[in-house]
Design a protein that fits this description.
Layout lengths: L1 E3 L10 H5 L7 E5 L2 E5 L4 H14 L7 E5 L4 E4 L2 E3 L3 E5 L14 E5 L5 H15 L3 E6 L4 E7 L5 E8 L4 E3 L5 E3 L10
Parallel strand pairs: 8-9
Antiparallel strand pairs: 1-3, 2-3, 4-7, 5-6, 7-8, 9-10, 10-11, 12-13
Length: about 190
């Protein structure tokens, strides 16, 4: 992961700068004017995203949608993130992006993005008011769920490992185990 805090003209990056980035397979995100550049995801990462999409989509209510990256969550001119997977309301979508917080943001950890996902992105999703943030560690495999506590801050509500079954209630009911998301990949 590459992090750049200052744009070419010496000021913070904006979404206009993102629109000029090359279509080179990298993921370009913007957190408070800081540009984050992630390498293209590896097959293991993509398998988890695909399997989770297949688990969530059939249970998704008609007024909600499940999307894999890249779908921009752009609430301001200096903030654009692309969760690995998200759930949002149909009424919140525009033709190009999601200008408000999704109901669920999911990030799959990788060696190049783990610190960003566990810290910067978690803080951004909390600040935006994303009700549920899931982090999946493919190496264990583990699902960690963060939701808002009584103090209005994220708290870790559950950790599910390997073949243990996770029963989500938000944003809608669904059941799966972290191990299922790897399929035949080990």
């Amino acid at each position: 992961m590459t992090v750049m805090a200052i744009g070419v003209n010496g000021s913070p990056f904006t979404v206009e700068d993102l629109e000029g980035m090359p279509d080179d397979g990298h993921r370009y995100e913007l957190i408070d004017g800081t540009l984050l550049v992630s390498p293209a995801p590896v097959p293991r990462h993509q398998k988890i995203v695909a399997k989770l999409l297949v688990k969530l989509d059939p249970s998704c209510p008609a007024d909600l949608h499940v999307f894999p990256a890249p779908l921009a969550v752009r609430p301001s001119m200096t903030l654009e993130v692309q969760p690995d997977l998200l759930v949002c309301r149909d009424s919140d979508l525009t033709d190009k992006l999601l200008p408000v917080a999704p109901l669920l943001a999911v990030e799959i950890l990788s060696p190049s993005t783990a610190l960003i996902d566990l810290n910067m992105k978690k803080a951004v999703y909390e600040r935006l008011g994303v009700p549920s943030y899931w982090i999946i560690d493919p190496d264990v495999p583990t699902l960690t769920v963060f939701e808002f506590g009584a103090d209005g801050l994220y708290e870790q509500t559950v950790v599910v490992k390997a073949d243990e079954v996770f029963e989500a209630t938000a944003p809608f009911p669904v059941k799966f185990s972290p191990a299922e998301l790897l399929g035949t990949l080990k």
